[in-house]
Amino acid sequence: MNAMHRPRFSLASRILAFQLAIVLGALLVGAIVSIIVERQRLDAQYEQRALTVAQSVAGMPSVRDALNDSDPSRTLQPLAEGMRRASGASFVVIAGANGIRYSHPNSSMIGKPIDEDPSAILAGHTFVGIQQGTLGVSARGKAPIFDGSGRVIGIASVGFLEQELSRQLASNLPLLALYLLVAVALGVIGSLLLARHLKRQTFGLEPEEIATLLEQREASLHGIREGTIATDVDGKVTLINDEARRLLRLSGDSLGRPLTEVLPPGRVRDLLIGQVTGADEVVLAADRVLVVSRMPVVVRGRTIGHVATFRDRTELESLLRELDNARSVTEALRAQAHDFSNRLHTIAGMIELGRHEEAIQMTTESSNVSQELTESLLERVGDPVLGALLLGKSAVAAERGIQFRLSPDSRLDGDAGHPRDLITVVGNLIDNALDAAATSSNGGPRWVEVSIHKADGDVVIQVHDSGPGIGAGELERIFSEGYTTKLAGPGSRRGLGLALVQQVATRRGGAVTVVNQGGALFTVRLPFTAKPVPAATA
User: pTM of this prediction?
Assistant: First the structure.
């Protein structure tokens, strides 16, 4: 990779170096331990061998007899040297009960006292161990010499010099070195195979490059303006970025937990766990409008999980609703222009026919009807924006051949809470009612009636239509985002209107109900001030 700095030593070289260091270190420690153990074994072996030879010498009758002579060394020196050569010992020393040597490999030491304390041997005990003597450090074995009555009359001491043992131990080192070389060779082969395997697993990237890619990936993941959640095949969260936490209002301990524990019941969770399928599904999450896409993650032909992306369309949906309102006003103006055009043609025809009084009367009636409707709306609905919305919807209803009625009890004076919430609720309910009334097939008049008034500290909004009503199986589903009974064209946004109505009511602590009374009757109660909402409901 040209954009990344290549490390001085490759991963294979470093693995080989580390592996060799580990193998050599382990072998060195093992060799030292083996040498120490072998040395201790040789010491113990030759100590017992020396004791066996010493006991053999001590049990010889000729040795006992020689100790009773006037000059024991004359007999014991050649006897001891013969035993030394026969046994391979470094020395065989015979001393009397007084500690005087009567034999020694160095004849100048004959007649001199032994260097060690002989009390334990003279007490009838044997001895094995490592001691320093006139010839050097040796593995020794000592045995008492008894006479016929069981009295100790002398000491037999046999030893093997440590330097001789060291030479014997050194003779085993070539075999140990062979084992060492074989182990090093196996370590090198294993290291190369491991490096090759890791190279395949990391696609030829070095650790520094992998770390750089991970840092870039984390920075990109948390820097993008789309929420991202990845899950494994068991539905546990394996990855989540900051935008997803913000949009879904998730806590920081979501990683590693199942989605069913992280998200509350709802359409968002159903989409993420696969109960609802589809691409670019529009959902509501708290007060946000999101577009969700969920795709499988396939590695080497096997699905290892899923990744879901969230695009925040709250502002876009708000603009689209404003566009819908503007379109409604445009449609209303177009309908009025069409109606006025027809009236003008009629009035012009009357004038041409010379029926001037009837033309003046028709002009006055049209002006009075329009003025009365406008004044009635503004008088009974104090909010000018809400009044303009109702006026526009009435014009749209007139063009579609639907009678639009404002109930006699409608009156809304003063502050009624957030006007944007009222626009959202009233606009969506009237749009649904107009669509329902337009599809009515009962042959009777088609109408929509709206009631807006205050009651018990709430704003009560009722929208009644002459449509077919709500099916029994749809009463619980119509408020779910994405659910619609209308035919959706390409690119159309269906299934959000009633969900937005319920969202507004829930956020303000109100309620939405619907019953069938010759058509659907929706009732929404919105408190003037927001009330606390239970967390589960929110």
Answer: 0.47
